[in-house]
Design a protein that fits this description.
Chain A has 9 helices and no strands. With 172 residues, chain A is mostly helical. The chains are: A mainly alpha (172), B mainly alpha (249).
């Protein structure tokens, strides 16, 4: 990032190669529409180019990029590009089974509907923690809150999910 | 939630086994058992489709060295302060003589608000400063009302007030337009716009504070403070309509 900020365009391509896959996965999970996720990814890297001067030298690149991608996804939702989750087919082939080795689309849909039922701030915190593997300090940077607030959001989200999925655990 | 529960929340993973210490805790803790069950239901990250190739329009070659964000922020602070003092010079100082300490404190709080509000609105990490800006605006508003001397009340209410309203709107609108344009270069955020709106409006309020000879509470509230609040609200609405050119924090 430091090389890109100082005008090295090859560093941008390296940045894209390294993070585009991760960010695209994050955007697919957030937006659920691969075509809108593609657009959000381009918006993310367009923002990286335009706003490279807003990157703090020495700061971590990954949370900064996730913050941009999350903001781009929110903007697409606000402008009505986010698609509603309605059928298992819409989950697409990229969606991971909720329990490894179990191709149960019905179960998967219920888990995803439970995620949908969470307040957006809690859902974002859980997705970044659970699926993107970000630490709470990194999540705090992405969503622009304190580390404690990020932890509280995730904890409350997991609690709510636990309640929403209680019948699944009993069935299992 | 104990410290170990907190560690399980941070480290518990369905992909890898927990350390012996955490596993032993989880076996005896209903809360952590439920957390780990929820983790297992959620699973790990799926394999998304491969990312699309980079859009050829996003060609970074020939961009040169990045200009740090604080250059634009510092220029904006200087421009707003210059506008505030320029408006005072253009209008003249003939404000109602109140207590000099109160008048000085009000002017200082408004100038500080212009600087802190503009800087925090344009900074990538200004959340705390933005909250301070809102606090400073409340303090400045209180000082303005508390400093009212009741003088100048002989003029008809609207005749005395409309020039103040026009001056404040005229001084604030160009500054707000500039700040909103600068704000489209970063991710949207209501608190950023509020900070920008309060800073932009403070320039007009500062000029009025030194210029306006009417010092009744009703005049100050209706023609000095209310337009300030309304313009900040308008800024929030306008920013929602504006296209965001960058989603960087």
């Amino acid at each position: 990032m430091a090389r890109f900020c100082s005008g090295d365009s090859a560093a941008f391509e390296a940045l894209y190669r390294r993070y585009a896959g991760l960010l695209h996965g994050h955007l697919c999970r957030l937006i659920r529409s691969p075509s809108a996720a593609d657009d959000a990814l381009q918006l993310t890297f367009a923002s990286v180019i335009r706003s490279r001067g807003r990157f703090t030298p020495g700061a971590r690149v990954k949370p900064w990029l996730y913050a941009i991608a999350t903001n781009a996804a929110r903007d697409l939702f606000r402008r009505g590009r986010g698609e509603e989750l309605s059928t298992p087919e819409q989950l697409g082939a990229w969606a991971e089974p909720v329990q490894p080795g179990v191709q149960d689309r019905g179960l998967e849909l219920r888990v995803r509907r439970a995620l949908e039922a969470l307040p957006p701030a809690q859902r974002e915190a859980i997705m970044l923690h659970r699926w993107e593997g970000l630490s709470f300090a990194e999540i705090a940077e992405v969503v622009g809150v304190s580390e404690t607030a990020a932890k509280v959001r995730a904890h409350r989200g997991y609690e709510r999910l636990r309640e929403l999925l209680a019948d699944l655990k009993e069935d299992g | 939630m104990s410290r170990t529960c907190d560690r399980i929340l941070r480290e518990g993973s369905p992909q890898g086994p927990l350390s012996a210490e955490l596993a032993e805790h989880a076996r005896g803790c209903r809360d952590c058992t439920a957390t780990l069950e929820t983790f297992a239901l959620l699973g790990g990250p799926g394999a998304p489709p491969p990312p699309p190739p980079l859009d050829p329009r996003l060609d970074p070659s020939g961009l040169g060295k990045a200009r740090p964000w604080w250059v634009a922020a510092a220029l904006a602070v200087l421009l707003l302060l210059a506008t505030a003092f320029g408006a005072v010079l253009a209008l003249g100082v003939r404000g109602a003589p109140g207590h000099p300490l109160m008048g000085g404190l009000t002017a200082a709080s408004l100038l500080l608000l212009i600087a802190v509000g503009t800087w925090s609105a344009l900074s990538p990490h200004g959340r705390r400063l933005r909250l301070i800006t809102v606090g400073l605006a409340a303090v400045a508003a209180l000082l303005i009302v508390a400093g009212a001397t009741g003088e100048g009340g002989a003029l008809p209410f609207w005749r005395a007030g409309l020039p103040c309203l026009a001056t404040e709107v005229g001084a604030t609108l160009p500054l707000l337009a500039l700040l909103l344009w600068l704000l489209t270069r970063s991710s949207p955020g209501a608190l950023k716009v509020v900070a920008a709106g309060l800073a932009g409006g403070a320039a007009g309020v500062f000029a009025l504070h030194l210029h306006c000879p009417v010092s009744t509470v009703s005049h100050l509230v209706v023609f000095h403070l209310l337009p300030w609040a309304v313009l900040t609200g308008v800024a929030l609405t306008v920013r929602r309509w504006m296209r965001t050119r960058s989603f960087a924090p």
